[in-house]
Amino acid sequence: MSANETAATVEHHAFQAEVARLLHLMVHSVYSNKDIFLRELISNAADACEKLRYLALSEPDLVAGDPALGIAVETDEAAGRLSVVDNGIGMTREEMVENLGTIARSGTRAFLDGLAEAKDGGNLIGRFGVGFYAAFMVADRVRVVSRKAGADEAFAWTSDGKGAFTVEPVGLDAAPARGTRVELHLAEDARDYAKAATAERIVRAYSAHVPVPIRVGAAGAEGREVTDGSALWLKPRASVTTEEYREFYGTVADAFDEPALTVHYRAEGRQEYSVLVFVPSERPFDLFDPGRRGRLKLYVRRVFITDEAKILPAWLRFVRGVIDSADLPLNISRESMQDSALVRKIGDVVVKRLLKQLDKEACDDAKKYDGFYKDFSRFLKEGIATDFTNREAIAKLLRFESSMTQPGETVGLADYVKRMTADQKAIYYQVAHSRAAIESGPYVEAFKAKGIEVLYMFDTIDEYVVSSLHKFEEKDLKSVNADDIDLGDSDTEGEALAESETSTLCDWIKERLSASVETVRPGKRLVGSPALVLTPDGEMTPQMRQMMKALGKDGGMPGPKVVFEINPRHNLVKGLSKLHQSDPDTAGLITEQILDNALLSAGLLDEPQRIIDRTQKLMEKLAGN
Predict the structure, then answer these.
(1) pLDDT digits over 214-250, tens only?
(2) pTM, entire model
(3) What domains can be seen in the chain, in order of their start residue?
(4) Which of 42, 73, 226, 391 is spaced 20 to 30 A from 134 at the CA atom?
(5) Which of 219, 191, 205 is CA-nearest to residue 84?
(6) Do 183 and 194 meet the contact criterion of CB atoms below 8 Å apart?
């Protein structure tokens, strides 16, 4: 092909806007650990080899003449160049444009914002799957030469990271026989990476357990095998060190944190499979991305099949690791995999093992578990709402503050049940935005007076979680503002209104507030507060109603009428008993104010402005008198 013909076939492309911004961040990187670029390139090369290994099961000609898959890291200190070469699946022209010029992923903007603010972007880069662009942290020019397995043409992708790239055909003699070569022309301040010793150090530190052999050496030389591609998950647990687990976790999860939990076992018998999965100690950056899926790699007899199989339920999407089955067919399709009874069985067992280990961790090291819970409680709660089979086991992992813990300290449901009073029939809880809001309100007064523990829940989804759970160890979970709780008389201090006076006052209040209240009655659970409102049996709790309203699912309907309980021993109520006879107008304003105060405490007040208007009227009356 002549020079003119070659020039005519060079395609010029602009990077997708998100990629251009990402490259700007990489080129101007101030991250402390730039070594991650090599880990990311090796990870991509390993994926390319794994994909070819899988395709070769049905198309063995793809690896004819070169069946041993591997990765070579080639250094050229004199030229200031580092290359990562694999003999994997390779790329076509179109795949180069798509894979190296765009980021086809939702949540990209959030990722880029986080990357710009991070002091060390290694975790974000790896976890978000844009690791190729990390090459521009150390290179001022990158050239990718690739030949697709089975193809008779090769192409080169070139960019300086400044907003554009080119793609052009190259002669087969200038390309790998199969696979991809990524050439990094290193920047002046990064030429140390062109040393074989530096490259070997990074490979040993970050890629020691990639399931493809890696050789490191000078360009043109055979190089030395640094890793043998052995499968760590197939080794007996007793023979694997903590450091090996940490290194493998970093490889499989693209992470730099320590695993909070490691589950490694081999199942033998009717089904044979090996499992090595990790729970991170830090929440992955994009875990709330709706498009996010669990990243478990599925192997069949060490042959990589997919990392998109839905083996675990969605709420466990933070789990990383490997499952290797000896019983699945090597040619299983992704579609039939979802219908596989064996895959479902493996997933069910893995979930139960994870839950058992997390429960043990919570018992053995409460402080460490609290750190995990802070980051991952939302996903456990999602599991309560969506995973009926494991709901009780997940519930054991929930933690809440309570009326018997100090601020910041928590208790689990199992420990709550153990210290229930002898005649206690239910697990009591209150949902509010803070501990102060609960303890300044009227609902826990009687429970504290009776020595009954109340769980404090501060998460907006807790009400939905409780409504999904219903019971724990055969004990009902009951909100403290439910109507059907009878704790007996909780306040015996001070003289109460006579029964006849109380009855007369309740009738008058019911008539005055008939549009808002269903029932008015003396309350036995009040201690220091004049009144409270309760949710009628069968109605949504205030917190559930608030959540539905926030979701736009309340239909715009007014809230239900409430049960209004007054405290016959409270001075305000006793004064109201006299005032409603001598000055019913003022008494009416005060009664409405008491009700709105109670509604506000319950989270049921829809129009707070009316409190201000009424307070103005009451002050005018007082000033006038």
Answers:
(1) 999 998 888 899 987 788 999 999 999 999 999 899 8
(2) 0.72
(3) 3-227 (3.30.565.10), 232-364 (3.30.230.80), 400-479 (3.40.50.11260), 499-624 (1.20.120.790)
(4) 226
(5) 219
(6) no
